[in-house]
């Protein structure tokens, strides 16, 4: 087992690889968004919204923006009327898939 490297930030707060991972993909919706994009392929905004009925417009927009900033998803905008935007998972995003698969398996076994 690899030892977790503990780092301290400028404010003296402990930082570790698990904290970093959770800051990037943690929360209620980011793993679900990544799962759908990884399993179902490219999706438009409304398609994602339908796959996650409990998410608000504001939350979905925010989570998509954060995942894009982290380089886990791509956002492709088509300049047409009506506007069309598609989201897809990146190569970096696919590296999270084994984690999500383990979470999925654990959830199915322990639900």
From TrEMBL:
Q: Does the keyword DNA-binding apply?
A: yes
HTH hxlR-type domain span: 16-111
Q: Which SUPFAM superfamilies match?
A: Winged helix' DNA-binding domain
Cite the entry's keywords alphabetically. Answer: DNA-binding, Transcription, Transcription regulation
Extract the Gene3D superfamilies matched here. Answer: Winged helix-like DNA-binding domain superfamily/Winged helix DNA-binding domain
First and last residue of the signal peptide:
none
What the entry lists under InterPro entries is as follows: HTH_HxlR, WH-like_DNA-bd_sf, WH_DNA-bd_sf
- Give a yes or no for keyword Iron in this entry: no
* The protein's name in its UniProt record: Helix-turn-helix domain-containing protein
